[in-house]
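*** Backbone structure tokens ***
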Amino acid sequence: MSNLIQKAKEQAAKLTQQAYERAAEAGILPAGAQIQAKIEIPKDVNNGDFASSFAMAGAKALKQSPRAVAQAVVDHMDLEGSYFQNLEIAGPGFLNFTLGPRWYGEVLSAIESEGKAYGDSQEGKGEKIMVEFVSANPTGPMHMGNARGGVLGDTLANVLKRDGCDVWKEFYVNDAGNQINKFAVSINARYMQLLLGEENFPFPEEGYHGDDIKALAQAIYDAHQDGWKDLPEDERLEKMAEYGLQKNIPNMQSDLRKYGIQYDEWFFESSLHNSGYVAETVQLLTDKGWTYEKDGALWLDTTGLLKEKYLREGKSQAQVDKLDLKDDVLRRANGYYTYFAADIAYHRNKLDVRGFEKAINIWGADHHGHVARLQAALDGLGLDGSHRLIIVLMQLVNLLQDGKPVRMSKRSGKAIALHDLLDEISVDAARYFFNSRIPSSPLDFDLDLAVREDSENPVYYVQYANARICSLISRLAEEGELVPAAFQVDCALLHEPEALALIKSLAQYPEEIHLAAQSCDPSRINRYLTGLAGDFHRFYNSCRIKGEAPAVLSARLKLADSVRQVLALGLEVLGVSAPEKM
């Protein structure tokens, strides 16, 4: 697919090399030099559209000053039939290329011909990647952190897919272990309080205190009255946990569907325990010499694994020796496997059994200490976890209203729930805002701004640009002015700075998709769309369309329609709608 920015860079490099070879043939420059030069986009557009460092990079090998090398290249440059219409020398010897109408026309042609595939690439080479995100404990409603992780993971998966990767989206359901026992104990306490009175049955101090636990207990009471009261405690707790999970997991799935997220699989932790896969994974670590027994428990030699990992990554022995490293329990003295053991088994399942080349997890920043330990454990299994497991750490969300932090939920009395939030604002606003900052930055989510219908609201600003173009196209169509095909447009008529800046912005979209995939930062797409909308509004306010001469109207209308197409593509990546009217 077309990346016209990259094509222009490659052509500038090729033209420069050819000019150097002609200069060498003419005896102006020494022949045979291998020069590694960079082609970059200058920050100042007055310095051209692309700048080559060829003259500075080659001055030593060519035994001439950079300016002399640059002049020889310019004197032997042939821009005929290329993307460029001008070449100048600047500063110490930069070669500044200025794009011509052919390149601008090819951008519009690529958007037209590639349609919904514009921006897609094969850079990912079909790499099989799992993106695991949200994976919230099914012991209560999803909160604001899950809301941010949800859109980050979903948008990253969309970006990776468009970059040519084979992507799988997964939710890991923690339906085993200590938190599920605590969940059951909490429901049980509320159930017994309904039967005996709150004063006659103490609530566990470490229990879950939310109103959702009371609602589950009430539902059990409504369905069974005191029928579960006299069951053996183990059986009663097992039934409580099963009932709670059967209620909570469908609710989570429903909330995420409302949020625009569909998973390829909901993977249950219990399946790893029930199949013996956790025990098998721990045994493999033992067989490889990475475990030891102490105080009746089985421990992972995390210290040894991390030392090996850090030394491989270039840390010195002295640096490694200063680190405060600790080992981890895999199997407690009571015979139960820890969450860490199950986590290692789950990631072994991803990389070894199901054959994902990379596993990307979206985690809260409070899990940062877990990253290297899990990667090292996978290294110990021979799975190269240090490279194949990628963790995107996500900072907290601060919800604001009337300029002040919102700390309490109206319903649960605890953390803000996702379903509460989506009652207050649109899914479009939620998805756009939660993806608006790089994951490693804290995010202030202003509820008042999210519902405003003006240019201060970024999602409204972008959607309004799309709707404005749709309205323009519709009005002109009524007057018989239809969007032309790209070959019918004279791009030389799009010479205003605002028009040229807008086309360059359109050309940047494929590169933004690739860079977002490469950096695991889907917020690049938000920033790109906000910038593209701004470029369009400036163009629209400076370059009249309706009432212009037919050829000018046609060219500007085509450009506006191209913006509409790319805005819609980018919004689709974000899971946000592109309304035609607002």
Q: What stands out?
A: Confidence is low (pLDDT under 50) at residues 409-413.
